[in-house]
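A reminder from the course coordinator: this example appears on the midterm review sheet, so study it carefully.

Given structure:
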């Protein structure tokens, strides 16, 4: 077992307090948006050793999964993620054009899909996936969103989204739910607000989750959580950001099939141990509510454990460790620990 030193990302939408408190360090008035544990080139973790530290990749190899603590005080971009085929094609094309991997206008920074699971640590608000059309039409009628409802009814979902994102500025509806009103205030006239009105608005309780497969349109609005994903940084943005936006690529990558409620509830494996059923073989996640003594033995090439609450003796809140194949760790006390691994 090796303790990890994660990498903090100070994106402008980040909360100033949650991650510093999580790490038991002093806040510095900067936004602390994400804390990464993994080997991704955008923020490779270090392993603490008796002689200092070395890269996680040297200890455990290049990991196919990435674990983050995320904390949003402001909305993230309206975005989606590609399939493997789309990512490989886009990555090759941008390489051939000669766009640097670190260029702001780079979309495909690797050749991999980016399925991800967000598990709430606090109340967490997001928009995620498109509602069934008939349900949205009823909402448009109820709140007087006449123009949006007419476009949706006559043109269908995909063309309605295209209209919203490629024309404007728009006269946004006056009668909006509070979350959409905040977006409209921050981004007046932006068609992304109209797209958001077509989507599921969810508020997760701690322990609930969202699974975001390829093509799922989404935007986190606020809250803190654990994210587990493939080790990829391919994000196709359409709105709500100062970062590079490509509406054409978003329209090509996003899936416009309505989905049922996107909320994922944990399934009980055994007393105190929960799993999150997801439709990907790329990674797995288990939440362990430690109450007493428990031994965890790695059954994968590498596993990352993150303690998000309490003290499990070996690791406590704010700490993470890596286990290599067949290594084990003894947990003792009262704590919440997330066990994560990659499988592809």
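Designed residues:
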């Amino acid at each position: 077992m090796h303790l990890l030193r994660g990498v903090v990302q100070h994106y402008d939408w980040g909360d100033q307090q949650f991650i510093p408190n999580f790490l038991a360090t002093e806040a510095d008035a900067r936004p602390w948006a994400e804390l990464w544990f993994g080997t991704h080139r955008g923020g490779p973790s270090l392993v603490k050793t008796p002689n200092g530290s070395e890269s996680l990749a040297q200890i455990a190899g290049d990991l196919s999964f990435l674990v983050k603590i995320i904390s949003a005080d402001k909305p993230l971009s309206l975005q989606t993620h590609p399939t493997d085929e789309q990512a490989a094609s886009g990555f090759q094309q941008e390489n051939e054009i000669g766009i640097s991997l670190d260029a702001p206008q780079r979309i495909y920074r690797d050749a991999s899909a980016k399925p991800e699971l967000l598990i709430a640590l606090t109340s967490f608000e997001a928009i995620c996936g498109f509602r069934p059309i008939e349900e949205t039409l009823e909402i448009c009628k109820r709140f007087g969103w006449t123009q949006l409802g007419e476009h949706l009814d006559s043109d269908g979902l995909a063309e309605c989204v295209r209209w919203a994102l490629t024309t404007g500025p728009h006269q946004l509806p006056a009668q909006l739910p509070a979350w959409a009103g905040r977006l409209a205030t921050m981004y007046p006239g932006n068609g992304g607000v109209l797209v958001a009105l077509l989507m599921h608005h969810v508020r997760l309780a701690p322990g609930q989750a969202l699974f975001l497969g390829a093509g799922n349109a989404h935007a986190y609005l606020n809250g803190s959580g654990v994210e587990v994903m493939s080790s990829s940084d391919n994000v196709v943005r359409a709105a709500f950001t100062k970062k590079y936006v490509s509406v054409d690529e978003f329209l090509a990558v996003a899936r416009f099939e309505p989905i049922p409620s996107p909320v994922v509830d944990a399934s009980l494996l055994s007393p105190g141990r929960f799993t999150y059923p997801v439709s990907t073989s790329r990674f797995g996640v288990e939440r362990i509510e430690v109450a007493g003594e428990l031994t965890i033995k790695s059954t994968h090439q590498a596993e990352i454990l993150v303690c998000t609450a309490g003290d499990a003796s070996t690791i406590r809140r704010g700490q993470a460790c890596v286990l290599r194949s067949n290594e084990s760790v003894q947990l003792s006390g009262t704590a919440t620990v997330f066990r994560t691994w990659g499988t592809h």
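The first helix runs from residue 18 to 22. The mean pLDDT is 96.
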